[in-house]
Amino acid sequence: MNLRTFAMIGSAALAVALLAGVASGRASAVSSSLPQISAGRVILDFQPHHTQARAVTAGSTSVKRFTRTVSDGGSTFHVTMVGKNPFVAQTAPSTTIKTFLVPVKVILPNGDTFDPTATTPCDTQASALTRTLQSPVVASRAYSVGGTALGTGQYTDIFRRAEFFTQTRPTGINPGYHVKLNTVTLPVRTVRVPRSAAAEFTTTTACGEKTGAMDINFWDNLVTGTLLPSLRAQGVTETTLPIFELRGVVMFDGSPSSCCILGYHAFAATAAGKQTYATADYESSRRFAGVNDVSSLSHEVAEWQDDPFGNNPTKPWGHIGQVAGCQNNLEVGDPLSGTNVPTATNGHTFHPQELAFFSWFYHSKPSLGVNGLFSNNGTFTTAAPACT
Question: The whole model's pTM is what?
Answer without folding.
Answer: 0.91
